[in-house]
Amino acid sequence: MSLIKELIEDIEQDKDIVKSFVPKDSLPDTIFDKDGESFLLKKEVREKLLEISSEFLEFIGIDFFVFDIVLTGSLANFNWSKYSDVDLHILIDLDEFDSAKVNSTAYHQIVKEFFDSKKNIWNSNTDITIKDYDVELYVQDIDEKHLSTGVYSVLNNEWIVEPKKLESAFDLDEKKILDKGEEYAKMIDSLSELAENGEDVTKKVDDLKDKIKKFRQSGLEDGGEYSYENLTFKLLRRNGYIEKLMSIKTTVRDKKLSLPQ
Fold first, then answer.
1. Residue 121 CA to chain centroid, in angstroms?
2. Which of 76, 111, 141, 214 is the most exposed place for a label (fewest CB within 10 A)?
């Protein structure tokens, strides 16, 4: 494939992704049943999600109390699309593992990294789908701030935060999202190229990750899930650039630890 053709296809894909952010009039009927003015998770979907959760908990390999198992993200909201994932969160209390009551930030971080590592291994080595949507597991601390406007308890079969349709017309600023997404994409491409050429860009990667995280967080806090900052982040995640950013440090590490001939 020529470079020009590839660039055109990338641009068209990004435009398609951005258009998918327009909110729908209903939740996905493959996942939810209409229940009066509300929605309930389909019985077969709920049972399968509980089965998946059970397998994941067995994979983790240690005992702990599960406060809830929730479905969140765009699939539990009116901005779902073909790009959505089944975001399944296992809610636990990380302080439960602090038997010595040291209450240290370092200890808390070690426990969190253990669960993140288990989650990453599971997600990387499984190919589970629900009605053609990829299933992504995540272990969430009960004290972790969560700003989603759609959260469904799979364990209790009820809404914790029920999503609401937008009362006013949704103004999708496609150009603004695409321009900002392209700006971040160019930064990521540049860091990736530097890493391939042997430069240690670890700090630059961490700085950019923090910048994107703060950019998204400010949008979530001020404008919610439909803010242009959050939609820009979703574009970068769905077109593969967030994953590309995360992989750059691996490239740096591998080159640093290798001994050429």
1. 15
2. 214
Phi, psi of 39 (to 5 degrees): -135, 145
**Domain map of the chain by residue range?**
3-20+170-257, 32-161
| pTM for the model | 0.81
What is the CATH code of the structural domain delimited by 32-161? 3.30.460
pLDDT digits (tens, 9 = 90+) for 74-129: 999 998 999 999 999 999 998 888 766 666 677 788 888 999 999 999 999 999 99
Distance CA 76, CA 81 (A): 11
Q: Is 113 exposed, middle or buried (0-12, 13-18, 19+ CB in 10 A)?
A: exposed
